[in-house]
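INTERNAL AUDIT FORM
Audit reference: QA-55
Scope: verify that the stored structure record matches its stored sequence.
Auditor: D.O.
Record contents follow.
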Amino acid sequence: SRDNLTFILDGGCPASKASYVLLGVRSDIWTPQPKGQSNKFIILYNQESNTRSCAESVIQAFSETFAQNKDIQLYIRDRDATDIFKIYVKEQAAKYNVDIVHDDRFLTDFSEEVIIYAQADICISLNKSSTWSLRTIEGMSCGVPTISMEYSGMREYCNNYHSALCVDYRLEVITDEELARLEGLGLRNYLFYPSTQQWRVKPYWAIPRIESIKDCLNVMYQSKEMRERLSFYGRKMAEYFSWERCAQNLSWELSRLLKF
């Protein structure tokens, strides 16, 4: 993403020798499928809890928004979750009396992932510091209306009220205390762990505001029109991030750089 390019340029690489190419997904795999049969409204959270995601924020917002409502399900697609985090999810579900499915299987067949997208009514995809999110583009390619945020590389494809519904967020300096708190929940694998003291400028988390997540969940749940619009335009936006487009962009950039 452009954010990665900024890091490279700040490190001293000449601008004439550097560029960036956006990632893409295979459009022959990630495509809309007939919706699965379910008597519940399914909210898919498809981010691994061990890769700087906002799993704890999403679980809190969902639980407080839909407490005592078993007609709405939070389906967490979370490969390789820690045992501590699995226990935390169960405790939250019991505390708020909500339906949370924690699917931590490590699937090797993309078709199984596509089926999971097909079952979802909406998808929520938030990252604290990831500069790009293939998971988000996968869901958008499958036509799933998406909640995300206009931060870092996700700004490339998440346009509020057009291709996605975006939550508000604040930037917060990554501290050792915050890392320790999250590790206590079983969230791990941080980009800047174990110490931030080595950095010239301390890096930041992008922290989605809980109330904003709640607002987005409510809007998506209550408005079929909103879901249909975001499904359509989200998929149109995702077409710009297919492997075919990625290959074209790479070819253009290589041609430009080789001229120097």
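Auditor finding: record pair retrieved intact. The first helix runs from residue 2 to 10.
Action required: none
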